[in-house]
Amino acid sequence: MLSSFKRKKAQQHLARLPKISQPLDDIKVLSSPRDYRSALLDLISHAEHRIYLIALYLEHDDAGIDILSAIYQAKMRRPELDVAIFVDWHRAQRGRIGDVAENTNADWYCKMAEQYPNVHVPIYGVPVNTREALGVLHLKGSIVDNTVAYTGASVNDVYLHQHDKYRYDRYQFITNPALTDSMVDYVKQNLLPAAAVHNLDCHNRPSKPEIKNDIKKFRQTLRVQEYKFVDSATDEQLAVTPLVGLGRHSPLNKAIDRLMNSTEHKLTLCTPYFNLPAPLVKNIISLLRQGKQVEIIVGDKTANDFYIPEDQPFKIIGALPYLYEINLRRFVTRLQRYVDKGLLTIRLWKDDDNTYHLKGIWVDDNWQLITGNNLNPRAWHLDLENAILIHDPQGELKEARQHELECIRTHTFVINHYQQLQSIQFYPVKIRKLIRRLKRIRIDKLISRIL
């Protein structure tokens, strides 16, 4: 009785969310990073009014050069274009994890600005917290005119499959003036005016200590800001709701919680890093106890972007995929009886040495969440996240939804028993020793929370 009451309350909450009417023909779902790259470049080349590129980072590599050069070319063709790029402040000013910070992305932005002195393409660094480990800009959705190109991917060679390897994500193009206006207005009203936000395409950037107090005030402001738009859809229409949030009690987190609890028949969830926040684990267990189906699609440890093959130099960060696998093994062990009953399906994604970065939630046949949120403690507590919730009460997106899920499942295999997942005794010696040392001093939980 209690579960039925909770489900109805969750469904009522979703029904009360403001929604924007969405024409079916204006949603395009792509299934490969190369297709996404081509579509994004095409959008940029035909931009008439605005280009707002928003990503965790814009990398100085072939893919990044192509995208940024295309934006400069678009601005040259149409000087009146409203152009702005937003990336994480900290990430732009360091190298990749484990690498020396030489010739950072921010340095490259400066060189591009110098190369095009008469073309203004501002690149802003957004510091969500005073340290990268405590929170980053994880907003997704780049806007070109009235289309939002929504993906969890950042901009670099692997995310956009520029060369041999790719990192798999979701790729949605949604054309909707009200939706894009709300997302651009959020940026203009909350990010651009902030004292903590500064240009990265110039050499006189402030140091972190200089803006420390501004960052703290900025973070507090972000906690209470939401997307603003007019409720324009009925409960019977195909509709979208943009959501944004920072912190445990954010509107986005509440929507994710209610979305899961509203499940009547089946929940499908994708995450690249199996490290679900406790409330989401609780929701899954509750659904299984009610006899509902739950499908979780997660990357194999070798498909994790932190994975380091044994024949390459050892780095501490390489332990992360193994920590995630330990989490998954414990989870399946705990819920093995539901796997045996056919209620819980665990799929591991693996395609050669490519990587998996896919996230999202599908509930029954009428709700889906497209998001960059990794559905882990870091996303739940620390990062600035957003999402687009799609309500499809008439099943208009059924074919596209089924096709996308079929593509996602293509390179997966089902885990029927927890023993199919490696235990720590079979891990490489250096990994095994490191993990046991971390567990002795109980720092593994802290690492899981911030990475």
Could you describe the 3D structure shown?
The strands form 3 sheets. Strands 1, 6, 12, 13, 14, 15, 17, 18, 19 and 20 form a 10-stranded mixed β-sheet that branches. With 451 residues, the protein is an alpha/beta fold. The chain has helices at residues 2-16, 33-45, 62-77, 105-115, 177-191, 212-222, 251-261, 278-289, 320-334, 336-341, 377-381, 398-409, 429-440, 444-450; strands at 20-21, 27-30, 50-54, 82-88, 123-126, 137-138, 142-144, 147-151, 167-168, 171-175, 198-199, 239-245, 266-271, 293-299, 344-349, 355-356, 360-363, 367-371, 384-391, 412-415. The radius of gyration is 22 Å and the shape is globular. The model has no long low-confidence stretch (mean pLDDT 94). It starts with a helix and ends with a helix.
The pLDDT mean sits at: 94
Helix content: 25-40%
Unreliable segments (pLDDT under 50, ≥5 consecutive)? Answer: none
The total count of helices amounts to: 14
Portion in strands:
15-25%
The tally of beta strands, per DSSP, is: 20
N-end to C-end Cα span: 38 Å
Structural class of the helices, strands and pairings? Answer: alpha/beta
Radius of gyration based on Cα positions? 22 Å
What summary fits the major beta sheet? Answer: 10 strands, mixed
Shape: globular
